[in-house]
Amino acid sequence: MSAMIRINNVSKWYGEFQVLTECTTQVAKGEVVVVCGPSGSGKSTLIKCVNALEAFQKGEIIVDGTSVGDAKTDLPKLRSRVGMVFQHFELFPHLSITDNLAIAQVKVLGRSQDEATEKGLKLLNRVGLKAHAHKYPGQLSGGQQQRVAIARALSMDPIAMLFDEPTSALDPEMINEVLDVMTELAQEGMTMMCVTHEMGFARRVANRVIFMDRGQIIEDCGKEEFFGSPRSERAVQFLSKILQH
Amino acid sequence: MDFSQILPALPGLWQGMALTLQLLILAVLGGVALGTLIALGRLSHHRLLASAAKLYVNYFRSIPLLLVISWFYLVVPLVLQWLTGNPSPVGPFTSCLVAFVMFEAAYFAEIVRAGIQSIPKGQAGAAYAIGMSYGQVMRLVILPQAFRKMTPLLLQQSIILFQDTSLVYAVGLMDFLNTARSKGDIIGQPDQFLLLAGAVYFVSSFAASALVKRLQQRLAI
């Protein structure tokens, strides 16, 4: 399998404080990798390094053959090919749902307004929200907003999707509607890197699980191995805490 | 008191008001445009640019407007002459407009900066993540939201500017107040004209302020 995302020895500091220490892993095409770990472990920072929303000082990240840290890399172009979904949705509140889905298609990819709107509506239909096309983000529930955010990312025909705690800001009853969309996406073969605490989702959908603590990748293995017999003490502790409830 | 002299003076007074409003509108548009650029400069990661923008704001906020108006009246023609090689008289209106735009830009810049900073960081993150350039992030995502939030403050500052335009008397420009005063001086009865001018400034500024407050409440919902 060819690696879609390759992370080699990446280290990152905020001033004196080291947030990432020599992280190395990769995500193959079509693979679903769940990144978990206690808060402050650097998992969100790591995933944000993949599309250069965060800079890193050492190591390299290669996305589909392009080096993210290279000063010559056309970052907007690279980012337009990698979808990202955020904890707080980050839909654009001053634009209707239709325009939220169309704006980057038109302004970044140069598609026509009609083509972009049509594609947006198709994706909106897919996440079950076609009836809300004319509304504004503030009129939707959190779960609905996150589904729109996923559709927005998909509208760019991404080669991979990054999810940064997509269900952490949601009320419990809305978590499943978002996880269902993500599950469907995974089953269709989308390459996905998901920072999440949803271990049920990881068990069901992930190919691999990465466990991080204090900026380091502690475990990086198949999900059976991770849930069956994690090697590290810290992963065992983390799992026992998170699976208790 | 005798107000009978006011009626025949109305066309002249209206001309003065037209000049005041023309100056106000152009100065607000120019000041907001320049102020936005300065705000973006202040928020830039480019250190030199950020310090230059900060210096600009602090400089213009530390000197009196009257000084800037007189200064530009004298300096703008000289600069143009230096640039073009020919004597270039620019007239008081243009020099005043340049002075107001540059002076007000310092105040507008601080409003715009606060407006930009009030938009959650994640919005820019999401806009970058979807492939937008810096210019697109600002133009399509951040500034539209920021301007919506800061419109009441920009209007409030414009009301202050409306009153400050009267300082153009220093270079002999016939705005509303200057016209009113000279009409009164001609007939030797300045008091009635000054009272009228005061009433006009008060009523229009007060009404505009009230409208801005209502707008603010509506936007707050």
UniProtKB/TrEMBL annotation, chain A:
Residues 5-239 form the ABC transporter domain. SUPFAM superfamilies: P-loop containing nucleoside triphosphate hydrolases. Keywords: Amino-acid transport, ATP-binding, Cell membrane, Membrane, Nucleotide-binding, Transport. SMART domains: AAA. PROSITE patterns: ABC_TRANSPORTER_1, ABC_TRANSPORTER_2. Belongs to the ABC transporter superfamily. One of its GO terms (cellular component) is plasma membrane. It is found in: Cell membrane. CDD domains: ABC_HisP_GlnQ. The lineage of its organism: Bacteria, Pseudomonadati, Pseudomonadota, Betaproteobacteria, Neisseriales. Its main location: membrane. Pfam families: ABC_tran (PF00005). InterPro entries: AAA+_ATPase, ABC_ATPase_HisP-typ, ABC_transporter-like_ATP-bd, ABC_transporter-like_CS, MetN_ABC_transporter-like, P-loop_NTPase. Signal peptide: none annotated. It is a peripheral membrane protein. This is ABC transporter related protein. GO terms for molecular function: ABC-type amino acid transporter activity; ATP binding; ATP hydrolysis activity.
Automatic annotation (TrEMBL), chain B:
One of its GO terms (cellular component) is ATP-binding cassette (ABC) transporter complex. One of its GO terms (molecular function) is transmembrane transporter activity. It is a multi-pass membrane protein. It comes from the Bacteria. It is found in: Cell inner membrane; Cell membrane. The chain crosses the membrane at residues 20-41, 62-84, 90-109, 193-212. GO terms for biological process: amino acid transport. Keywords: Amino-acid transport, Cell membrane, Membrane, Transmembrane, Transmembrane helix, Transport. SUPFAM superfamilies: MetI-like. The keyword Nucleotide-binding does not apply. Residues 17-212 form the ABC transmembrane type-1 domain. InterPro entries: AA_ABC_transptr_permease_3TM, ArtM/GltK/GlnP/TcyL/YhdX-like, MetI-like, MetI-like_sf. Part of the ABC transporter complex GltIJKL involved in glutamate and aspartate uptake. Probably responsible for the translocation of the substrate across the membrane. Belongs to the binding-protein-dependent transport system permease family. HisMQ subfamily. The complex is composed of two ATP-binding proteins (GltL), two transmembrane proteins (GltJ and GltK) and a solute-binding protein (GltI). This is Glutamate/aspartate import permease protein GltK.
